Amino acid sequence: MNIKENIGEYLKLDPYEISKNEKREKFLELIKLLARHHVDNCEPYRNWYLNNEFPDPEKIISIDEVPFIPSSAFKYVSLSSSSKDKKTIRSSGTSSQLKSQIFLDAETSKNQTIALSKILSANLDKKRKHFFIIDVEPDKSDLSDSEMTARYAGMQGYLMAAKKRTYLLNKNNKGELEYDEEKLLLLLEIASREAVVVIGYTYMLWQYLVNTNNPRISKIDLSQAKLIHFGGWKKLSDQKVDKSELVKMLSLKTSIDPKNVLDIYGFTEQLGTVYVSRGISGCRASSYSEVLVRDVDTFEVIEDGKEGFLQFISILPLSYPGFSIVNDDIGRIINRSVDKFGHEILEFEVSSRLEKAENRGCGDTLPADYYI
User: Fold this and answer.
1) 297-307 b/e with 16+ CB inside 10 Å = b?
2) The dihedral of CA 195, 156, 184, 130: what is its sign?
3) pLDDT tens-digit map of 306-356
4) Which of the residues in the chain have pLDDT under 50?
């Protein structure tokens, strides 16, 4: 089988129900094939790989030998491994920051959709649910605003799991966001008789579920619901709010079971590869991904429990060499175990982001000859 067929076969596996030995064998073989694919098909990546005298992909014998590139490389270099028609995805960021540029062809996009769909299904149950979105429905004026665009772009993949979508907020005549009372009543009515999903950016949930003065929210009962939040942690950390505090307040305010509060970690350079945290647990790697922690000075892999740069390895990036990336997040492995069914569990937590000046990232801490 070629690399595309191998990825397709691997994606038939359950996102969490895989044994440690099966994953170790099959995952590494796929990553070696991906390394070879990108060396052969992406000239800047090939030059970097050869200049740094990394081992031939076929000779890699363990996952910690897989070369990685800094996520910031995608801000400076056009990295494409596909000659087919492709679309360009740009990361969010302020207007003064360089944005990562990711090239997606149809095959990679399809694989990302399959992986994300299976991960969401495993965490939300297979039956599709009504999604209530704590945001305003986008229109052309919203899509011209960089912050709004980033929020909507980040949410689109998750909304594919919905049987129906309802946006809960609208803009008043001052341009401020507030609840659409009719839509809020619909949420209260439907949530009282069936499981729903409430979804939004992390800081939007904090503002409009936890800190709102809307009297109807005090009567809301989400005890049957799942709640998805993602991104936007910086605004909460500035307010000294951590995950534990957020989950506690959401549970008090809405009666939701803490384990049904799903914090989703992911980033543009590895679209489709997400890591779901339930309640205050760590972010869990799926069958389709692996996480390593590297020392911030030596970049050597360090033992579980110690903090370092997070390296994310994914089987999905085929049209661009983003299968092994170190980004600016500092974190640690907090759980590496096997459940009673023999399935591997790997969970990590993100503790901080590397303090850096404008346009700097983990790539700037690497040796000059390492960088693409």
Assistant:
1) eebeebeeeeb
2) negative
3) 999 999 999 999 999 999 999 989 999 999 999 999 999 999 999 876 654
4) 94-96, 148, 356-360
Query: Residue 217 half-sphere exposure, CB side, CA atoms within 13 Å?
Result: 20
CB 118 within 8 A of CB 14: yes
Q: Does domain 114-264 have CATH number 1.10.3210?
A: no
Q: What's at 28, amino acid-wise?
A: L
Strands (E), 149-225: 162-171, 177-179, 196-201
Q: What is the CA radius of gyration of the chain?
A: 21
pLDDT of residue 139: 74
**How far apart (Å, rounded) are the C-alpha atoms in residues 118 and 108?**
15
**Segments making up each domain of the chain, as ranges:** 114-264
Work out the burial of residue 87: count CB atoms within 10 Å of its CB; fewer than 13 is exposed, 13-18 middle, 19 or more buried.
Answer: exposed
